[in-house]
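User: Show me sequence and structure for the first protein, then do the same for the second.

Assistant: Starting with the first protein.
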Amino acid sequence: MAFSPRFLKHKGITVIQKLDPSVQRLHPGKVGIVLAGGAVSGGAFKAGGLRALDEALVKRRLPGGTAHAFGLNEFDVFVGLSAGSVLASVLAAGIGPDEIFRILRGSSDTYDAFRPWHFMRPSAPFEMIERMRLFASREQELFTNWLSGATDPRSGDRFSFGATLGKMAQNVARLLPTGLFDPRSLEQYLRRNIGFTGISDDFALAFQQTGKELYLTATDLNRGEIVVFGHDEPYGKIPISSAIAASCALPLWYKPMLIDNPLRGQPGEPDRLDLVDGGLMRTANVRVAVEKGCELVVCYNPFTRIRYDRAGRNLYEHGLPSIASQAVRTMIGARLDLAKEVVFLDENVKADVVFIEPAEDDYTFFGMGALNFWTKDRAAAHGYQAVRESIEASHELLGSVFRNHGIELRMPPRTPALAPTEARMQVKLRESRGAQR
């Protein structure tokens, strides 16, 4: 029987199998991991889940070669955005999930303990000077235009005194800080600790040292476009620590990350890049991993909507925080669901993709605030247990996919209670908006 792509879902695990397992591989394909955002609690949840995934991996046998021990640090490509960019960079540097767990708990010998001030340094005292300068410059420009009798280029009329006063009043908004906190504090923490590992803060040099491909993404605020950082990318001259800080610069929480453009002087390139959180453009960058040659991609997204169907209860009763959390998670999860459809339907995507997400009834993780620093230990422990249970419940399904790439999974200590059910998506052409891009 001819092979046809499969779309399978079970207990927080989604598998899109595009490669025929009956076709023998002559050359080893790259294996990549893609880490979505998640702020503080989501990043910690991922850290715990990565530990569970690493424990499930045993060894890999390459075509024509012998088997060797295989774990997350043996992956070839690491892609991250927002909080996922921190974890992707640490894994690419050869730091294992157990050590990441210790970093979160403040007991690591590799990294300094991660403290609230490392990512929550107020921006207002420092940014206000720059905001006042921009405000004064614009006020002077508006007043000079009126005083000199300049004409409005849109209407051709001279600027009136009333209109000038109105614009000067509107200009007061320039005094407001652009974010509560400064991402430079995170950049400084990362730069210092990257130095402790002995791995370069430069993408190209780090690739030479480790042989691992690291790709991080942010959003260009002025152009509304995705920016990819990596050793073979145009913006790869930007330091890893700066790229991570830019990828994590959630608007309003952080002020934009302002970085000198390494391509300045080239046609269409500004002198400076104003960058914000990579999650604005994508929930996860699976396509980046596929374009870099990965034939197996593991994508880990900690935020997705829950199905709150407890008898006689509803999220409205819980109030604004729960409604806001569900709204954000629904948006993030829906975007990734659309990406799954695109991956499944796009014939140019020739790779198997495994998505790991919280189960839709994971009320425990839902109750942890995304930006609550003090939930990180609990989120990490819960992520470990949740992902371990999901892997065990879907072991047979995952085993068949990983085995197609020479990877052996550890047998679970118990037999899953439920077998995965086929959920192949029959999507009509008019429903496949994402596939038409």
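Switching to the second protein now.
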Amino acid sequence: MRIDRNKEQYRINERINVPEVRLVGDNVTIGVYSTSKALQMAEDMGCDLVEISPNANPPVCKIIDYQKFLYQQKKRQKEQKAKAIKIVVKEIRFGPQTDDHDYNFKLRHAKEFLEEGAKVKAYVFFKGRSILFKEQGEVLLLRFANDLEEYGKVEQMPVLEGKRMIIMISPTSKKGGGSTKPLLIKNDKQEVSENKTK
């Protein structure tokens, strides 16, 4: 069943129903051949004729073992994924009048997240009339960013979005170091909310 699904992705052998194809690869003389001739060449080599670029004119094909071709494609995809960094975003929620105990609890979590290479999205949630304390919320977030100065840098200063004032903090360094390819951003909404013991 697995092979049939792959054959729907790439046309091979008799499924290539065009009069001629362009052959590429190290095992052939590159050029345009009739499809029947290309099929005969593939059969003589004990391989498959695989269409790798159907939209070209004429379509581009390779003579290769089809299973080997699929393996190479999967290996290439894995390598591309391995070169990308997965950035995780952790959320930390405050109230406008968070006490020192809650604040320090969340600060510890934020330090752990940043050390692991995650971004921290901290926000103050204003409920009802507590929106009147938005300046207090901004001060709290700026204090939070200042206390995390050794672990992360501010990516976005406090911004009020609806009932939430948000600040984004990125890690100053990533585990393992080294140069990397473009980022693959993943939202991981792991919230550290206030302890509601009222």
